[in-house]
């Protein structure tokens, strides 16, 4: 019997990943990946090239019936009237629009930043920081007026890739009105809210006018057809796709340690946090996705391993040979500045250095604990906004690290479930593709993946010491 196949794409910060699964059972049939270039400013053509390479690595997708694209959130993709990309996209981790974020917050509060933060949270569920598209558009209008003037439409990475897959089939003249997005990614722009739809007034406030925006599709609504006739799902932001991929239930908080560190849960109700810690995103099923995001996660572990002349496994072995709390050594991991807390100009720091803790093992442990403490702060912020936490589901490249898996329950103070290593964002996109194709009311129930459960005695002193020191960091040198 021939089976029906679906494909899910994760066009994330560091790589493009493609999974091909059985639409009914969810069985993994084949997969592929290709790297993205480094940097916080990337031309969307690079994502397209990597997508083609990842599809080829996965053995092609001519036999696939539906495709959904999930991708890194917030990236600013500007298109001119002919559909040409105006300038390389500014990514979610590009902090150059931090002053524009401050300006937008202050302006909405008529000069009062606190009132402004509350007004933004009330309007869109989120207080904009440099990551959000709305602040990048203000930056473009302020710093590159010629590019701003050429911009006819603005979309996000997953919108653009879906459009390219569709446009390549549709016609020779790209049709900007065929751009689509979904609730989850639209909620990361800063000019869309579930309750109101697009807030064109906020877009105009930031950009000075109202460029064309993608149509926001319902969950499982078809975007169109790809070149090979495959149905295109609406796609999603990568975190919303991950929630679909792990089939998170009530009491589950997902922690993803990828390029970004994210802490999020599926919720029946929206949040509006005026402190800006919790972003009030929408999910990919018609619900909500309160989320905390840090800029410094797996790459902190990568560079620490590099400094210590080892790899991820070596880092884990070293970290597990040092005591909890690393004998007072504390790493504040703000290597790329930070988003939560909002410290775009901060640098990382090492505190509490003594002769006794001057070992590779102590540094390895402190780096892992530093990343986890930042995420534990995020967990607290979610709890403060009514999210129930019974267990943490740990995913992302960092979850492949044995020390991260073992230290996480001690730092978080709750059991940690680790699904078998996989590409959960791409899996969620594939599940959405199947949902779109099958046309049922809910996503298909796929066979659950094997999980391991990690428990540990809580180490609250590790978090207390981190909390005492996290604001003691130097600022970045001016460029
Ligand atoms: N064993 C490991 N220990 C620590 N980090 C790891 C390990 N395996 C992979 N990673 C890191 O995970 C990151 C990629 O994670 P991923 O979730 O795919 O990121 P993204 O989706 O942001 O591209 C890379 O920085 C990689 O080095
Ligand atoms: O900005 C956010 C969430 O708000 C990030 O989570 C990006 O969506 C990038 O994700 P990764 O590439 O790190 O998975």
Automatic annotation (TrEMBL):
The UniProt entry, under SUPFAM superfamilies, shows: Actin-like ATPase domain
This enzyme catalyses: D-xylulose + ATP = D-xylulose 5-phosphate + ADP + H(+)
Q: Which residues form the Carbohydrate kinase FGGY C-terminal domain?
A: 255-436
Active site located where?
Answer: 238
Q: What does this protein do?
A: Catalyzes the phosphorylation of D-xylulose to D-xylulose 5-phosphate.
Alphabetical list of HAMAP family matching this protein: XylB
Q: What is this protein called?
A: Xylulose kinase
């Amino acid at each position: 019997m021939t089976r029906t196949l679906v494909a899910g794409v994760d066009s994330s910060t560091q790589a493009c990943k493609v999974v091909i699964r059985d639409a009914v059972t969810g069985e993994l049939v084949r997969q592929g990946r290709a790297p993205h270039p480094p940097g916080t400013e990337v031309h969307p053509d690079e994502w397209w090239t990597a997508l083609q390479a990842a599809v080829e690595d996965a053995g092609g997708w001519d036999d696939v019936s539906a495709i959904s694209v999930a991708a890194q959130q917030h990236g600013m993709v500007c298109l001119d009237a002919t559909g040409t990309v105006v300038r390389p996209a500014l990514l979610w981790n590009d902090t150059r629009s931090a002053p524009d974020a401050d300006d937008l917050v202050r302006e909405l509060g008529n000069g009062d930043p606190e009132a402004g933060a509350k007004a933004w949270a009330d309007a869109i569920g989120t207080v904009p920081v440099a990551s959000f598209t709305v602040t990048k558009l203000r930056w473009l209008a302020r710093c590159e007026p010629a590019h701003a003037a050429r911009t006819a439409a603005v979309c996000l990475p997953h919108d653009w890739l879906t459009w390219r897959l569709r446009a390549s089939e549709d016609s020779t003249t790209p049709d900007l009105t065929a751009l689509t997005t979904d609730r989850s990614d639209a909620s990361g722009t800063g000019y869309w809210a579930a309750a109101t739809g697009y807030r064109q007034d906020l877009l105009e406030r930031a950009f000075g006018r109202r460029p064309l925006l993608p149509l926001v599709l319902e969950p499982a609504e078809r975007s169109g057809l790809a070149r090979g006739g495959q149905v295109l799902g609406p796609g999603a932001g990568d975190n919303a796709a991950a929630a679909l991929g792990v089939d998170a239930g009530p009491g589950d908080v997902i922690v993803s340690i990828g390029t970004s560190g994210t802490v999020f849960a599926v919720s029946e109700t929206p949040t509006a946090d005026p402190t800006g810690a919790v972003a009030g995103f929408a999910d990919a099923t018609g619900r909500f996705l309160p989320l905390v995001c840090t800029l410094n996660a797996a790459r902190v572990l990568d560079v620490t391993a590099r400094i210590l002349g080892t790899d991820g496994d070596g880092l884990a072995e070293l970290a597990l040979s040092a005591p909890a709390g690393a004998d007072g050594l504390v790493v504040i991991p703000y290597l790329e500045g930070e988003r939560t807390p909002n410290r775009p100009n901060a640098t990382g720091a090492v505190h509490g250095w003594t002769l006794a803790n001057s070992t590779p093992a102590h540094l390895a442990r402190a780096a892992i604990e530093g990343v986890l403490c930042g995420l534990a702060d995020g967990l607290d912020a979610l709890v403060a906004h009514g999210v129930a936490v019974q267990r943490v589901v740990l995913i992302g490249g960092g979850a492949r690290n044995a020390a991260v898996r073992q230290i996480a329950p001690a730092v978080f103070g709750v059991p940690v479930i680790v699904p078998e290593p996989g590409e959960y964002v791409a899996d969620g996109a594939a599940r959405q593709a199947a949902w779109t194709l099958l046309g049922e009311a809910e996503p298909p129930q796929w066979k659950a993946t094997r999980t391991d459960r990690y428990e540990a005695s809580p180490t609250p002193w590790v978090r207390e010491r981190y909390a005492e020191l996290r604001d003691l960091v130097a600022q970045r040198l001016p460029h």
